[in-house]
Amino acid sequence: MKLLDESVTNQLIENARTSPRLRAHHCFHPGPDSSVQRLAMAMQPGTYYRPHRHADPATWEMLMVLQGELAYLTFDDNGVLLSRTELKAGGPVHGVELPEGDWHGLVALAPDTVVFEFKEGPFKPVAEENFAAWAPFENSSEAVPMEQWYRTAQPGDRVPAL
């Protein structure tokens, strides 16, 4: 039996706090070939998720917020924000399933946010063509203002110019 208990959550949060990426994950599936990927992730405000899609292969994913708060963002092909869904542990919305192929990103709105993610396997890293060309690379100087834009962006807003 595998448990997602306080010790796992506390270790994830500590790992996210000290990670240069400000996030960490703990896998519950046995390996990358598993047909369903299951993982807990901790994230801190300031972590940047470059918008991407799961188009090759086309797969869905689902997030459930266990602690903290985040915004789940979807975009059109040109970087216009289509939707902003705020998820909060214990809140009226605390989970979201994204259909296959949609451009998406997320932003931590509270320290020590912890989510549980389910997605189709096997694991396949996102190919470069499935990262949004209109969004900065993860460790670039433009990533910081992009993550800050995420925090308040509303549907209809376009990502800042690179």
From TrEMBL:
CDD domains named among the record's database cross-references: cupin_WbuC-like
Record-annotated Cupin fold metalloprotein WbuC cupin domain positions: 4-87
UniProt xrefs under InterPro entries: Cupin_WbuC (IPR027565), RmlC-like_jellyroll (IPR014710), RmlC_Cupin_sf (IPR011051), WbuC_cupin (IPR046058)
Q: Which domain of life is it from?
A: Bacteria
Tell me the protein's name: Cupin fold metalloprotein, WbuC family
What organism is recorded for this protein? endosymbiont of Escarpia spicata
